[in-house]
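Researcher: Structure prediction, please.
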Amino acid sequence: MDLDFKKIVEPYFDEALTTLVKNVQINSVYDPLTVSTSSPYGLGVKKCFDFLKEIALKDGFEVDTCDGRCLEISYGKGDNLIYVFAHQDVVPVNGVWDDNPFSGAIKDDRVYGRGTSDDKGPGISAYFALKALKDNNLIDDYRVRLVFGGDEERGSSCLEYYFHNLKKEDPTYGFTPDGDFPLIYGEKGICNYEYKSKYDFKDIIEIDAGTVSNAVIDKAKVIVKNPEVLDKYLSDHPTIKFEKEAENTYVFIGKPAHGSLPEEGINSGIIMLHCLGEAYNEPILTLLSNEYLDPFGKNMYVFNETKDMGKTTFNVGIIKYKDEEFSMIVNFRYPSGVDVNNTIAKIQDCSPFKVITHSNADPLYFNPETTPFIKKLMEVYQEETGSEEKPMAIGGGTYAKEAKNTVAFGSHFLGKEDNIHASNEHIDLEDFYTSMPIYAHAIYALGKLKK
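Model: Predicted structure follows.
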């Protein structure tokens, strides 16, 4: 049967856009103040789940709220079980925005707002692709589950709970619309570690820099005891960007970027540490800033690189200091073949503070030439777009690490700017609509693919 997926999904474009705007208007940053048994990631994530649940039930899907950790939307009967994994949580707002980050403003054929590209836009596109298949009786001898998670940005505890606590069935095949087209066959490993120690920086009262480990610190705040010392240092270094909030309170200004691409940002936390170390003669802070001045690990002699997966990266994402308690959290990403324990041991050897490993997810890799479901997804992409682009490996981490037989498949098109994890995040309407037939075709093709 020769199916025109573009024609199948086109009637859903207007409804999909309206749904996306309403979805983006819900602030779903993790909120510890509103965490409860029914909302384990805070009320914002729960509101998103409730919003989508109501739509899915109205559209005739089965829904499982998964103890508030995920929202599972399912349909169909058959042996093959196709999963689509998206997420409703978003990273905190950073940088300077032209509009309210939760307005869902539509300008210049784009939708702006936190989550438009990561990952509400792609998730809504996948939902309406699924709805179009159901309404056209194209989910006939296979099953589909679209799972929206609520904690992807903090380490994917949602999917861990989904599979390990709820004992949900593994995918026959799956994809997550939380990466790049045409397809991502490899993802770097991700390790979060922390420098933690009690120490008296005699001239520093408090440091508050960064909110999540997987974003470059764009604003770093510090309160000092002797501001005239720092004033003198900063006047001697006029290229350093900062603002004074009070006589002894400074905010260093950088440039936000995704934690997998620290080289694309300017880390104000590292700049702050260097300034404090030099101005107040704190060699420990100078040492730390110098070690992370190179985001690839060369200054710590832990740099590594492979042809398929690229370079190691080290993103300083959070720095805190108060009451003589210092903490600095680093997001370390690495290609296959890197010994994580050996790397952390080398970092510890040259560190003045204790280094604690909090989490580690191994690299993900599928051979794109021999893996049947990856070859099928590439066929789908090429048929729908006419493109001959090649699949890739990336530094970002997705839900693909949390599920079997799953890869990241769009929805970001190469060469397009979407400001993921940065200010003025957006999704182009053209890309939003173009991804919908790709996802409908992909779900259908995987459903029909023999094991």
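Model: The mean pLDDT is 96.
Researcher: Thanks, that helps.
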